[in-house]
Fold this protein.
Amino acid sequence: MNALRAIGGILKGMSVTFREMFRPTIVENYPDGPGPYRGARFEPRFRGLHVLQRDENGLEKCVACFLCAAACPSNCIYIEAAENTAEHRISGAERYASAYNIDYNRCIFCGYCVEACPTDAITHGHGFELATFNASNLVYRKEQLLAPVPAGARLNPEQLRAHAPEMSLQA
Ligand code: SF4
Ligand code: SF4
């Protein structure tokens, strides 16, 4: 009796497999699809790699207040603060983050840093291709996290020089 039941179960399972063989395959065309995520699609609230945002003038929104680092349960955000000057302006406030690292070896993508930020400077993007054979590659620096300077931003030449390392003007 048990043997019959087992055979019946196998036949039932195989019938599902056999039926699916003749149905069209529905998959996301990753990684050969179009767009920045190569065919992968995300829900709007997907929490991927962080993005450090800029304002409409291209200045960094981060004012180096350290609230995100304080809120982070994994202690994976490292920030160094520096003062803006008239000649060297990076953000719209008194201070800016001269260094901003996130260690993705430890990040659990909880979003607490995003919620804690008073200037909406840090957000979750949709980047997800983090896999690497070298753990040190998972420490992302500010230059890797910064959003591109928006088209039409009016940075003066000195600001452009200050932003040069991560400069990537949008078309
Ligand atoms: S998502 Fe969570 S764990 Fe990751 S940096 Fe932000 S607060 Fe820390
Ligand atoms: S990202 Fe936001 S919370 Fe974190 S230091 Fe910058 S302004 Fe403060």
Notes: The pocket of iron/sulfur cluster (ligand 1) is lined by residues 71-74, 76-77, 102, 107-113 (CB under 6 Å). The chain has five helices and five strands. Strands lie at 50-52, 77-83, 95-103, 122-124, 139-140.
